[in-house]
Structure formats: structure tokens, C-alpha cells
Amino acid sequence: FAIGSAALTALALFAAFRIQAGVETLDLTKPSIMAGLFIGGMLPYLFSAMAMKAVGSAAKDMIVEVRRQFKEIPGLLEGKAKADYAKCVDISTTAAIKKMVAPSLMAIIVPVVFGFISKEALGGLLAGVTVSGVLLAVFQANAGGAWDNAKKWIEEGNLGGKGSEPHKAAVIGDTVGDPFKDTSGPSLNILIKLMSVVALVIAPLIK
Fold first, then answer.
1. Which residues lie below 8 Å from residue 192, measured CB to CB, with a gap of 6+?
2. How many C-alpha atoms does 171 have within 13 Å on its Cβ side?
């Protein structure tokens, strides 16, 4: 539902941008529009890769902190001492903010740059990012959920249950599936809407 809602919102914003910027048609024979389409189609993949990389980086920081606490806090491994939960929360919060600065700036700056190059090119960019972003978001949400459910299904005793080779493979799949369905997939909804909003805001300036 969220992905479909984002798609409809992006289409409505695109229609508003076309009127505000005075773009009558998008002629696919124009190089600038084709360039916008291809770059727009590429951006969701770049954004998704940056988000996934941020998840991996935050996970590594968390692993280092957990190992440090097990090593430095006496009795923690035996359950006799209390862990420093605040530090773990701080690592997650800091990573969530800092690691997503670059993807967020990309979503804001790219439409502005394209807008002042050519309003038609910006129209092509929005069309490309909307189509590519919606399809990629649907894929990641469904694939991530399938990986997660496959692991749970095997853990119920199917295909050998926990500890079996299928379970080991499912755990690896779930490691990718969780950021797919919880991070990069949902964030693509924001990407396509944010780029459309930025384009609509600058439309009077490039008319």
C-alpha cells in the first residue's frame, strides 16, 4: 500500500510540475530527455546501495561495541551484569542520521542541477526515477519478506529445521532480506516523492 501510495503521489506531483514548468511533451528523441530517463532510472539503485551500505556499516559498529562490552564488563556473558544499552542505542541513532546524509543530499541536489540544465531533462529524470523506484521498491519489499519468512518456515521444522544446510542458507538470505524490506525498500518511497517535490518547488524558477 505504501509503495502504491508513493507512486500515485509521485505521478500527481509530476503532473503538477509539468504544468508549473510549462513542459508540454517529453520527446524521447531529445538527448537531454533520454539522459534524464537513464540517470533517473539509475538513481534508485544508487540510493538503495548507499542505504544498504549504511546498514552494514552500522552493524559492524554495533558488533565492535557488543564485543567490547562482553570483554570489559565482568559477568555480562554469564548474565550477572547489565549491558550498556544506551551506548548501543546511540550507535544506531548516530548511524541512522549520519549515514543517510549523502543519499538525502543526492535526492535534493540532483533535481536542482537537472532543472537548471533543462526543464525537459528534469521531466525525464522524474519519469525515470518514478518508474524504476516503484518497481525496485516492490521487488525489495517482497524479496525481503520472502527471505525472512523462508527462514521462519525452516525454523518451524521444515527442510531439516535449525542447523540444517537450508537453514544456514536462509539465515544468509535473511541477512540481506531484512535491510531490503526494512531499509532500502521503504526509503525508496521517500526518494521518489522527495525528488518530485523538489522539482515542483523549483518549477517556477526554470519556467
1. 6, 7, 10, 44, 129, 130, 133, 134
2. 9
By the 10 Å C-beta count (0-12 exposed, 13-18 middle, 19+ buried), 138 is classed as: middle
Q: How far is CA 49 from CA 34, 97, 104, 137, in A?
A: 23, 16, 13, 13
Q: What is the pLDDT of residues 115-169, one digit of tens each?
A: 988 899 999 999 999 999 999 999 999 999 999 999 999 988 888 888 888 899 9
Q: Where are the domains of the chain?
A: 2-14+29-198
CA 42 distance to own-chain centroid: 13
What number of other Cβ atoms are within 10 A of residue 151's Cβ? Answer: 21
Return left, alpha or beta for 74; rule: phi > 0 is left, psi -120 to 50 is alpha, else beta. Answer: beta
pLDDT tens digits, 25-38:
888 889 999 999 99
Query: What are the helix (H) ranges across the chain?
Result: 2-21, 31-72, 85-98, 101-117, 119-155, 165-179, 185-206
Q: Which of 37, 19, 20, 41 is nearest to 28 (CA)?
A: 37
| Rounded-to-integer distance, Cα 101 and Cα 51, Å | 10
Tracing cell 507512486 back to the chain, one arrives at 7
Residue 71: how many other CB atoms lie within 10 Å = 10
Taking alpha carbons only, the member of 124, 112, 113 closest to residue 33 is: 124
